[in-house]
């Protein structure tokens, strides 16, 4: 579970409000899609949840652990995939996975099983002993995803995770999302792909100029809309982010 | 677009626009390169808009004031040398020494700078697809290196040129030519280095072990430039021992062959530059200025021509390493998947691997610890080789050291400890430990490992790198200076304790303001202000310790008592600084955004 209560974050000494009084709860077993135009506050929100940024106001808890007062407990149950796969290029893929396994304290049997599974799915097995700097962008994204899946986290937070993935890997990742949440775990991800959000997410939040302007299931979002006919998510998005 | 594709496209349609247009393009690329390299936009934004880093301005001011006494000492020395040399008509040799030292410094640092700027800047991936010639891209990188060199050589060249100009009350021609020579000074050595590096990279790129070749190649180039320095030392000494005293310098300057001409015989640009400045607007000055500028231009042009043919060939695919595709068997995988180490060990191993596998980090880190003592041992060998005649002026450096050891073993012990400490801490490993993580620092922020544990693992890594320097320095002190074990052991113990202090202080400085937005690993260690600030802090701490030890000696305490008190102070300082580092890590990690 992820809980944000009246969270605000600004830059430039308060001149730019990136996140403005955001209150949001993502329940266990839920896939939550986070949408918004560029610069709306998606990445800032994500960075606040994983502890990369400190909120100016409000409280964030992951699985009941306050990110400010119990950061290690919160981090222990969370993994994060950034929008750009900046990872240790001089390590091999396997060394990186071992590093992540060590710092999260993943038992060897689980480690072997998960590494084996995800390397096969992402077709990384033949290159896992090569330096990461020899990987393509998509391969780097896949190794970051494998590392994020390795600890078997209760909560996964992903920033644009489908960017750079080939269709097969994207399909498998979406299946993993469902599998992850069917096991009662939580998944929070940002995307610009409306179709994916519409089909995959249990609930969707739309952020605009730092404020949550719409949030709910697809049916709830459609009900919010006052115009005639069944609108698509894209049309709802355009409407609520117009101003 | 891949680099190969980009290079191909450039080859087909690279030349766009005519002469003036091209010149404008080059200037734009150079300006962009300078802005991006020196982070001018970022500094402006942080200082004026975000209003961060303002505390740095007075700090740098204080640090700059701190080096004023040192500069004053250098200026006084130059002034004294001038008055000794003037009656012998050899005062120009002083200018030649300054310019030559500057050029050697450029040669030595240039190898790091050139390799990093030409081959490891990430912005190359943006520049190559643009409609620019390889030579234009290289010229922009060259300009960045030249500006860096202005800063490097300022400490060596400016005091000599300015002091001599003021003392000798020279005419305007001196100053005008001095400015022109100063602006051109890096071109010849850098063009030579660039040609060597571009050639080297052209062949390294065909190898799969590029990093290893880059490392070996850089070491060979550094070795060659050092050999040149030693060669110059031998020639300029002309069979006489290099003495730090005024009389000795004066003595070998009055040898039948003029020192100036000797330098000129080995490295003519040094003499042209000297004559250009000293000659002012007289025929000699202008002729030598023309010669110096002409040769600089010629070499620069040569480099540009070579760049057009070789630069992209060495560059294409350099950042991309290929690996064999090989699937591990179940058994192999089981062996290679770690069975779970402590987070501390995992972080330590990460630090070690990344440092050792990044040539720029390795060259500036561990290898500095080996280089500095090695240079001292080579210098002492050279000194012996060229000594003899000069010994009449009071003996060579070895004799001095031996005399000091027998006269005052305590001072020798403290001196050896200082030498070892400096050799251990002169590398920027500790003061760049957080900066080196760069864009990957997010990983350290999100993993469930306490900041103090991460800092402790990093501390161990930095301390072991310092230890490499201490051990090498103690071997040098034992072998080259024939220090007995009874002197060496206490010195090693003192330097190990001092190493803890300096490592912790260096790490705290870097943690206060980590430089994480670099695109070129060189910036993380070599052009990192934190490394410089840590160096100032180190000088400050060692100066305080020096005066403390001096006071103890003056108080007529016995050797054991002095050593005991100094060691006690160091142990207390070490414990305090380590604990402060741990606390600071806990406080600072979550605040780094």
SSE-based structural type of chain A:
alpha/beta
Largest sheet geometry of chain B: none
Q: What is the name of the CATH architecture of the largest domain in chain A?
A: 3-Layer(aba) Sandwich
**Largest beta-sheet details of chain A:** 6 strands, mixed
- In angstroms, what separates the terminal alpha carbons of chain A? 31 Å
Count of DSSP E strands of chain B? 0
Largest interface, by Cβ-Cβ below 8 angstroms: which chains and how many residues each? A-B, 50 and 46 residues
- The CATH superfamily name of the largest domain in chain A is P-loop containing nucleotide triphosphate hydrolases
What's the number of extended β-strand segments of chain A? 10
Uncertain segments of chain A are none
End-to-end gap of chain B: 32 Å
Number of helices of chain B: 26
Give helix and strand order of chain B, one letter per element, not per position: HHHHHHHHHHHHHHHHHHHHHHHHHH
Poorly predicted regions of chain B: 1-16, 236-244, 383-395
CA-atom Rg of chain B in angstroms: 26 Å
Topology record:
The complex is a heterodimer of chains A (243) and B (593).
Chain A: E1 2-11, E2 16-26, E3 31-35, H1 42-49, E4 57-62, E5 65-66, H2 71-76, E6 78-81, H3 93-104, H4 108-121, H5 137-149, E7 155-159, H6 167-182, E8 186-190, H7 194-200, E9 203-208, E10 211-216, H8 218-224, H9 233-240
Chain B: H1 3-13, H2 19-38, H3 40-49, H4 56-85, H5 91-119, H6 124-127, H7 134-167, H8 172-184, H9 187-204, H10 210-237, H11 246-253, H12 259-266, H13 268-279, H14 283-315, H15 330-336, H16 343-357, H17 359-364, H18 366-386, H19 397-407, H20 409-425, H21 441-446, H22 451-479, H23 485-512, H24 521-525, H25 529-554, H26 559-588
Helix pairs in contact in B: 2-7, 4-7, 4-11, 5-7, 5-9, 5-10, 5-13, 7-8, 7-14, 8-13, 8-14, 9-10, 9-14, 10-12, 12-13, 13-14, 16-22, 18-22, 19-20, 20-22, 20-23, 22-23, 22-26, 23-25, 23-26, 25-26
